[in-house]
Amino acid sequence: MKVAHFVTGATGFVGSNLVLELLARSDAHIYALVRPGQEAASVKLRNALICSARAAGLGQSLNRAIDERCHAVQGNVEEEACGVDAARLPRFTQFWHAAASLRFEDRYAEEIYRANVEGTRNALALARRCRLDRHFNYVSTAYVAGCRNGLIVEDVARGPETNNHYEASKIQAEMLVNQEQDLATRIFRPSIVIGHSRTYAVSSGFTGLYGFMRRVLRLAQIMRRLQDELAEQTDLQVIADPAAPMNLIPVDIVARQMVRISCSAAGAKVYHITNPTPPPAGEAAGAIFRELGLKPPVFVRDPNRFTWLDHKLDEALGFYRSYFRSHKQFDRSNSDSALGGEDDPGYGMDLATLTSYIRWYADVLRSSSRTVAAAA
What we know:
By secondary structure, this protein is an alpha/beta fold. It folds into 2 domains: 4-196 and 247-273, Rossmann fold, CATH 3.40.50; 209-246 and 279-327 and 348-375, no CATH class. It is built from 13 helices and 13 strands. The strands form 4 sheets. It has a 7-stranded parallel beta sheet with strand order 3-2-1-4-5-7-11, sandwiched between helices. A two-stranded parallel ribbon has the order 6-13. A two-stranded parallel ribbon has the order 8-10. The protein is globular. The model is unreliable at 372-376 (pLDDT under 50).
């Protein structure tokens, strides 16, 4: 019997890189859930995977594998059993549920819970009907830790106070996975996923660090419209702890570690896919501001002396505040044990490397701004 995996979210950032890793590491066939749209499901899947391969610097090396071993399955995680007839599918070795809404704002609460909680319930239902040989793998987030600080162990999420609807929805989804009786389940918790470790590029899903960069750029543009060189000369204040660890991890390392753990004999339930040596938030913020043409921010403890521009920056932080203020140390005992304790060469995140990741997206933003200006 040929090895086959089922993947939801395969057209997204993490999901597409997961598929590429599965293709590169095995002869498995990949069946990917693709939401119906104007474009045929097979075309949408192929385009997403080829775009991710290009961003990873793989050129056309996996094109044949994509064409021969990737199969689009039309469906939607928001429908019962994802709207898929399991009788028409082969038996799967493993099921990967990576589809999710990454929104966090209050106005999207209903959408977030429908996609992340009910979507997980529907994916579990489909996996039961598919009669898995091994595991249902759920891609969660390390930030189910919510508002907790200190050592965050690889344990069942217990519903602590959270920072937003996204975190709360992922906790509820984890609870569904943990309560599952009929399937062997495993939970992976990536931290803040960034571009590829070799190219720094991102193929899709410009959220997390990139969403914050967009907000900072918008503020810089407002300042430049108000006065020439205002952005370059103003000391902006931000409530943040420059020593707080900013747990950034490249997408290819996330995919590689999840697949390696899935192939191991490890029996733990939860695995943190995080950076053991994350850069400090102060370095990350400083590099972002420099690349976007701003003076590095001044870190303060309270807003008593905020100017209106400082308040605008604080609004821009929004969802990202906890990244710049909290001290979370993610335990990796389960992950390191399953991986054999090998260090991953892509972890390196000194200032020069961190700046390269940030510069890649800053160039994308600048190019996009020039295109919009030229069109106007």
